[in-house]
Design brief:
Blueprint (H helix, E strand, L loop, with lengths): L4 H15 L18 E7 L7 E6 L4 E9 L6 E8 L3 E6 L3 E4 L7 E3 L7 E2 L2 E4 L7 H8 L5 E6 L2 E9 L2 H11 L4 E4 L5 E5 L5 E6 L6 E7 L7 E3 L2 E3 L2 E5 L7 E7 H12 L6 H17 L11 E2 L15 H8 L6 E3 L2 E2 L4 E2 L39 E6 L1 H10 L7 E9 L5 E8 L4 E5 L1 H7 L6 E3 L6 H8 L1 E4 L4 E4 L5 E3 L5 E3 L6 E3 L5 E3 L17 E2 L2 E7 L7 E2 H9 L4 H8 L4 E2 L1
Parallel strand pairs: 1-20, 10-14, 23-37
Antiparallel strand pairs: 1-19, 2-5, 2-16, 3-4, 3-15, 5-13, 6-7, 6-8, 9-11, 9-12, 10-11, 13-14, 15-18, 16-17, 18-19, 21-22, 21-38, 24-36, 25-26, 26-27, 28-36, 29-30, 31-32, 33-34, 35-36
The chain binds zinc ion.
């Protein structure tokens, strides 16, 4: 079938959305006040810790670093007065660490002997202790390789680092200044000048504080810092509570975080209104993710498990402006911060959240998306097909723990009113069956979205949705309209009542077709009974993502049509307020 009911519906809804306008009045609630202004972004943790982690001031932006820790409640950096004017430093565990140069980067320190440049773990600790950094530093400076160690609130002056205890004891004797030979604990972090064996600072506060490092600004601008080929705003935390390698966390203000996020989640070439919608959405989403990785000591990771973040490397004037022009704006519903899920594309319709995950939320209602199709041709993989032979699907299910016979049929058993797959059922050759619902449809089948059909056919719910639900777009929001009392403006300027049984839309071939109640139920006309086409289970669909909340490509399309970020947010999140 060339022109599916689903397609009619999208075209018709798009036409209506443009033709009609409604005025909405909204009560303005008090602006949301976030509980914190600094986010903790986990960069290296768990099984992905680092033996060493370098930092380098971005030229003209920073001129050295200060050391301290972070207040656990406010997350503010608390300086302990220790500073270095070295612009390239590396944090590492307090072991014998050999420098390994790497082309195109600052190099790393490793425990294998890979060269002669080494940071030793045995130190000469000079007599006495100090209440402040400068007093300890004044003593340490009198010795070759002198540095200050901060140990649970007390400063010590040290002289040199050695790879053996005997070497350090020889040095202790020849210095003749007294003191003792020390080495670190499982918590100690040494800081060296990158590329050298020169220690400049050590930090050990057990499990009470983790080391914080903040760049010193060289001018009025906020300093930025290179780390592993990307640059970042904010400060960094290093921690190794169980003697492991370094966990690295970026402590960054919400607004600076967003400046890094926008070009990673979208692109710095996208329309400003789409970027602004993403800024407000991501800012709001972040508040719902505070402590999401709390057991690892941070809020959000840098992948799409939370939100994609690559420092500020790809930020430009447009993405920064999108953040600045929406600064401090959050999405709320009845005064409460919203869970603003979003995904790459919805394939034509988003979905009520309870049809994908567990709990219903009033602002996460599925909408028919008449915009995204504008840009479908430029989204790679927008239309997708996945095929499984019976033996492939059987193996897949067994691999997922199902003790099934050969799968003989795969069908969609229920669609939502928006035409997304709600449940699919598989049957095996022993007559047993399994039904998968909601997001399990996507994961079980290994496909990109729940906007799909199996064995051909069309998405039925879309027609039903059209007959019962029509949306108009005002300057600020999409609103569902009653089907009675609709009017359309004809080409001659005449306004006419628009009962549903005489609605017409233009299809993709340029033909005018009737779209009325009579088409409801003309569903899955091409579906094969068992889901197979030419012997293979054939799953076809559109879009990529979980179908809940904003479509990023839909936002792009709406911005291209001249709509604002407020239009975009109100379209994808039902009944929300922005401020
Ligand atoms: Zn995460």
């Amino acid at each position: 079938m060339k022109n599916t009911p689903a397609r009619f519906m999208r075209i018709a809804a798009a036409a209506l959305a443009l033709a009609l306008a409604v005025t909405l009045t909204r009560e303005r609630a008090g602006a949301y006040v976030p509980p914190i202004s600094i986010l903790r972004i986990g960069m290296y943790y768990g099984g992905n810790t680092l033996t060493s982690a370098n930092l380098q001031n971005v030229d003209g932006s920073g001129s050295g670093f200060e050391f301290g820790y972070f207040d656990q409640a406010t997350r503010e950096f608390i300086s302990i007065g220790a500073v270095t004017y070295e612009t390239r430093i590396t944090m590492m565990r307090d072991a014998n660490m050999y420098y390994k140069s790497e082309s195109g980067s600052s190099g790393v320190y490793v425990q294998e002997k890979v060269g002669d440049v080494v940071v030793g773990c045995f130190h000469v600790q000079l007599p006495g202790s100090f209440g402040d950094f400068n007093s300890a530093d004044a003593v340490a400076r009198q010795y070759n390789g002198g540095f200050v160690k901060y140990d649970n609130g007390v400063f010590y002056a040290c002289a040199g680092d050695y790879t053996t205890r005997a070497g350090a004891e020889d040095a202790l004797a020849s210095l003749g200044a007294g003191g003792s030979v020390t080495s670190g604990t499982q918590y100690t972090i040494a800081v060296a000048i990158t590329g050298t064996g020169r220690v400049i600072f050590e930090f050990d506060c057990g499990t009470s504080h983790a080391l914080g490092v903040r760049p010193l600004a060289s001018g009025a601008e906020k300093p930025m810092t290179w780390f592993k080929g990307l640059y970042y705003y904010g400060a960094f935390q290093y921690y190794r509570p169980s003697g492991e390698d370094l966990r690295v966390i970026n402590f960054v203000s919400v607004e600076d975080y967003l400046k890094g996020l926008l070009p990673a989640e979208m692109s710095n070439t996208w329309p400003i209104e789409a970027l602004k919608a993403q800024a407000v959405t991501a800012r709001t989403y972040a508040m719902g993710r505070l402590g999401a990785h709390g057991s690892n000591g941070f809020d959000m990771c840098t992948t799409d498990h939370c939100q994609v973040y690559q420092g500020s490397r790809y930020a430009n004037e447009t993405t920064d402006r999108a953040v600045d022009e929406t600064a401090g704006q959050y999405i709320t519903y009845n005064g409460e911060i919203c869970e603003t899920y979003y995904a790459s594309s919805d394939g034509g319709a988003t979905e009520d959240v309870e049809n994908v995950w567990a709990q219903p939320l009033p602002h996460l209602r599925g909408v028919i998306d008449p915009y995204e199709a504008d840009v479908a041709s430029r989204v790679s993989g927008y239309n997708w097909t996945v095929k499984y032979s019976p033996s492939e699907l059987t193996a897949r299910m067994r691999g997922r723990g199902y003790n099934c016979g050969t799968i003989v049929s795969l069908t969609v058993t229920q669609y939502t009113k928006n035409g997304n797959a709600y449940s699919v059922t598989m049957k095996d050759d022993n007559g047993r069956s399994w039904t998968f619902k909601k997001d399990d449809v996507r994961t079980t089948l290994g496909v990109n979205s729940i906007r799909l059909t199996i064995g051909g056919g069309t998405q039925p719910g879309a027609v039903e949705a059209f007959s019962g639900r029509v949306y108009a777009n005002s300057g600020t929001a999409a609103q569902e309209l009653e089907m009675s009392g609709l009017y359309a403006v004809g080409g001659d300027g005449e306004t006419q009542a628009l009962p549903p049984e005489t609605l017409y839309a233009i299809n993709g071939s340029g033909e005018t077709v009737e779209v009325g109640a009579s088409t409801v139920g003309s569903v899955k006309t091409e579906s094969s009974a068992d889901g197979k086409i030419d012997g293979k289970f054939t799953i076809s669909g559109t879009g990529k993502g979980h179908n809940v909340g904003m479509s990023q490509w839909g936002a792009y399309a709406m911005a291209q049509r001249g709509m604002t970020y407020l239009d975009i947010i109100h379209f994808y999140y039902t009944g929300v307020e922005i401020g």
